[in-house]
Amino acid sequence: MRRINSGKVENILQESIGYYELKCFGFTLAEVLITLAIIGVVAATTIPTLLSNVSDKRIETQAKKASSVLLNGYRRMVANEGGTYQISSLPLITHCREFTDLNCMSSEHRKVFKIIEDSAGSLELANLPEEYAITDSEEFAPFRWADVKYAFATGDGAIYGLIPAENKSIIDIVVDINSNAKPNTVQKDLRKYRVSSNGNLINDVSYELLTVNRGECSINNLGGCVTAEECWALDPWVLWPEYSKPEMKWDGTSCSICSGTSCSCTYVDGKYDSDNPNNNPNECS
């Protein structure tokens, strides 16, 4: 049997241990904490954006589905009437009393849509969002579900509301594609569609919902006045009888109450504008 040189074995072991020690190294606690902090910052800045993008894509998919549901439904409605009807000749236009006959509306829509509940039954519009935001604005859209004459819900959670239009050859439908779920924002989960061309065309007219809801122009809501005529038609004495000769003032963009020369004379481009119909030229200097 061949003898093994113990000294040589010992040298081999020492060299192996040294190589292993050279290759096995670690991180300090500070390095680990710094790495975790960097990961946290990156996650905090990217994850919300990713989640937002996913949410936007999901909403857009739901909106396309809602558009398809409407188009297919009203196409079928026209086809059921022989296919030669104009929208203006459909029973829901001619027989349902401006959409106020809920049983009539329900009967016509249940023929072509898979409705789980509607205004003729248990659907309560009061349970839907009261306000819808406008992107990049602190204002809210003027749309209110109380303005909807007839609404129906489908199994995917979408709520469809019909609003009578002066043009009887079109049908306007407002859709909340996810009911009470957020973001409750115009042009996101709140859409408005217009069906025309004998039910063969549908357009997204959600931009019509963007008009800011300032409320009705009144002495208690001057922010609702959008024209000089509306402003000047108000009676300031109702609200400010203690003022000396109170007047309504329109500065071109907003309505206010004032008195004396501060109200009658508008300072424009370095001079008093005596051409303003609300001015008293005798009080301008």
Topology:
Blueprint: H1 6-23, H2 29-80, H3 91-94, H4 102-110, E1 115-118, E2 150-154, E3 159-163, E4 171-176, E5 190-196, E6 201-204, H5 228-232, E7 246-250, E8 255-259, H6 261-264, E9 266-268, E10 271-273
Antiparallel strand pairs: 1-2, 2-3, 3-4, 4-5, 5-6, 7-8, 9-10
Output the keywords.
285 residues, alpha+beta, 2 domains, 6 helices, 32% helix
Describe the structure.
A six-stranded antiparallel sheet has the order 1-2-3-4-5-6, with helices on one face. The protein has a two-stranded antiparallel ribbon with strand order 7-8. The longest helix has 52 residues, at 29-80. Strand 3 and strand 4 form a beta hairpin. It has two domains: 44-209, no CATH class; 222-283, no CATH class. With 285 residues, the protein is α+β, with helices and mostly antiparallel strands. The protein is flat. Residues 267-276 and 278-285 have low confidence and may be disordered. Helix content is 32%, strand content 16%.
Strand content: 15-25%
Spatial strand sequence of the major β-sheet: 1-2-3-4-5-6
- The oligomerization state is single chain
Spell the H/E element sequence: HHHHEEEEEEHEEHEE
- Stretches where pLDDT is under 50 for at least 5 consecutive residues are 267-276, 278-285
In short:
The protein has 6 helices and 10 strands; from the N terminus they run ααααββββββαββαββ. It has 285 residues and is of the alpha+beta class.
